[in-house]
Amino acid sequence: MRDDYSKAMLEKNFSYELSMLFLTQLDYDRARIYIEREASELLSQWKNLTKLSQVAQHFLVQRIQKIYEMKEFLSLLKIDSSQSGCQEDQMTQIIQSIINWKDRSPSASFDALSVWDDISQARQFFIDQYAMKFQGTPLQNALTHS
Q1: Which domain holds residue 112?
Q2: CB contact at 8 A, 79 and 87
């Protein structure tokens, strides 16, 4: 009984971290499950906020970027690159996603250092995963030499 409660609490409060854990284990399906739970939990918390709770709203908005970038990463990895021409298209989408990161930087004045750290660590992990998936391709060379 206690283990079930502990598991439920971990899954409810640390879904993003569990998603990252499963990414490190290359278990993309479980990572998708936990990032969807994180998004659902965030929406549930958002619905329960009052319009005057600006600090709580800001805290939830900070989580949106991490969720969005994780979902984007998982969707780009899910593309089937085995078909002719699809790998080049997938590489183009990945490069465009990475370029877009510069427009999605956390706020220097409003976001805590921990937010910047979480986002930069996740982005570095995503780049490492892209480089591993596209080993021996021009994308891998670009990612490892930049």
Answers
A1: 2-144
A2: no
Report the domain count for the chain: 1
pLDDT digits (tens, 9 = 90+) for 66-117: 999 999 999 998 876 555 567 778 888 998 999 999 888 888 777 888 888 9
DSSP the chain: -HHHHHHHHHHHH-HHHHHHHHHHTT-HHHHHHHHHHHHHHHHHHHHT--TT-HHHHHHHHHHHHHHHHHHHHHHHHHS---STTHHHHHHHHHHHHHHHHGGGPPPTTTS-HHHHHHHHHHHHHHHHHHHHHTTTSHHHHHHH--
